[in-house]
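Tokens for Riboflavin transporter. Go.
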Amino acid sequence: MKSFNVRTLVLIGMLSSISYVLMLLNFPLPPFPQFLMVDFSDVPALIGALILGPVAGILIELLKNVLDYFLTGSATGVPVGHVANFVAGILFILPTYYIYQKVKSSKGMTFGLVVGTISMAVLMSVLNYYIILPAYTFFLNTPAMSGEETRQMIVTAILPFNLVKGILISVIFMLLFARMGTWMNKQKVQSRAV
């Protein structure tokens, strides 16, 4: 995405809006704690990144989280969960985008989605251990978990949850990608021509 022309801004706005609505349609997965919710809001961000470039994908992730924070709020009063969602989205879409740019095929996309899922799961586990879970305990004014309890939470809940979430998003995206590939390529060409 080299410039922010009107067409590009409209496309980013539309994809951000769709992403926000998908974020509202979140749901828990039974084996995981209730605060870990799956949503498919990263799909429009990935579509935006593939059409307009990685900056557009990051902007879509940012805008959906800003919208959600201001319209639905946060249990902590500060956007800890929104920052976590933003970072997780970036950790998923950027590796997928860059790998697909190197290997432009459905195999390249599949490999990119696998790397994006692993990247999100592993790095979010590290960030949860050192930053996100301590921030939640601080802002919610709850007793801090011990190091062992935190490790247990990461290994039994957060890491497997992010793997499952990444797989679900990847499956949905591949189903859309198979149908929308021609449209996405057309949009990409049009955005470069303007």
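The domain at 6-193 is CATH 1.10.1760.20 (Arp2/3 complex 21 kDa subunit ARPC3).
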